[in-house]
Amino acid sequence: MVAPRRRASVTQTLADACVTSGPHAPEGEERFVSGSHESTTTVPLGSPEMNRNPQPTYREMRESAAVMPVVDSLVVVSRRSDVEEVFRRPDVFSSNMSAVDLQNVRPLIPLQIDPPEHKKYRRILDPLFAPRQMARLEEPVAQLVNDLIDGFDGRDEIDFATEFSIPLPSQVFLTLLGLPLDELPRFLAMKDGIIRPEHVTGTVRQSETAQAHQREAARSIYAYFDEILDERQAKGRDDLLTTFLHSEVDGHRLTREDILDICFLFLIAGLDTVTASLDCMFAYLAQHPERRRQLVEDPGLVPAAVEELLRWESPVMMVSRVAMDDTELDGCPIRRGDHVSVLIGSANTDDSEFGDGDEVRFDRDPNRHLAFGGGIHRCLGSHLARQELRVTLREGHRRIPDYSIKPGHTLDYTTGIRSIYHFPMVLGQP
Ligand code: HEM
Q1: Which residue has the CA at smallest separation from atom 32 of ligand 1?
Q2: CA 140 – CA 138 distance, rounded (Å)
């Protein structure tokens, strides 16, 4: 039986919080109340405290209103079983262009493509991002990590974000695409123009200034890759862009527009996610020296630690879907056109899957976390991301076994994708 739709008053929805708040939002402003006739729960969604330490809020949500209509057209899903159900039903819960608007003019490939067409693209892309292909990046990634560390050799304080976690994933991507590393500033500007135009322009995300900046960033991304593809078309190289131009599965070839729509998505999906994972992992390890010591003494633990910290921190807190039909989840009615925020972080700490979801254990096995999502849209770049994270944790702890957050500084995490803009880190023994 379908339960009556539970209502919630809201001062800022999770979706808004996800894109508009970040570290600049005043503490306590984004609280909403979810309640049935019998009970009322206050959940500090999107607050700095929740972004820093989201697991207690996830638990509260799972226990109070697992499928929670926040405002008329937004539903938040927090239990493991419901999150898995959303991922299993992409025909009903779509990630098409209306799930998230990034000022792209065509659907991003493959994220905003519904089945069955989606499969056609994954069959071309999956082999290019398979573990064996990504293993070839071991050496170049280790080199990039060590070069960045060399850059602050001898210093006793750095900003981990600006000097390490922001440049590294973009440098890896430039390497993969066969582009020179001095394109880094341009790459970062294009990515930030789409993901955080409000930050770049110093306004709010809905402002005309921010939107215009985002549109211009989108235009520059298409133009930038179009030009490079012209070059690769004229003279191929041993890089991903040249491979895209010649890839074919079952007679299907990628068109120029397809490749542009894939490259656009890579900028959105493949850079900030790794930055946020590095931020979350190093912040955790800075604050848990006993865990850090485990990795320093036994680097063989790094792969398991990466999985466990991806689970616990869930750097991508949530993903978005739009309902294609009237349906229901866990007894809660969902109407066609409703937006659904799927709380991956909550599914990743749900005791129904993990037993002791609030414990961080580097020996967790099995560890069926959903940090890379699930179902047909599960992360294409998971093997690349794992490679980057493993090499960084291994080399980072080999070169710098002791580090801590600068005394007196409180880290602020952004909402949605949990990166840290300003991360002062003290190197060496305190
Ligand atoms: C630790 C780092 C990363 C995390 C936590 C992460 C997380 C995710 C998640 C949760 C999704 C599912 C989105 C949804 O269902 O709406 C996703 C999809 C995707 N990710 Fe990642 N990602 C990471 C790194 C990367 C990298 C390095 C790439 C570069 C290729 C990448 C490319 C993609 C693509 C193309 C999709 C869409 C797949 C599809 O729709 O079929 N990701 N990622």
Answers
A1: 381
A2: 6
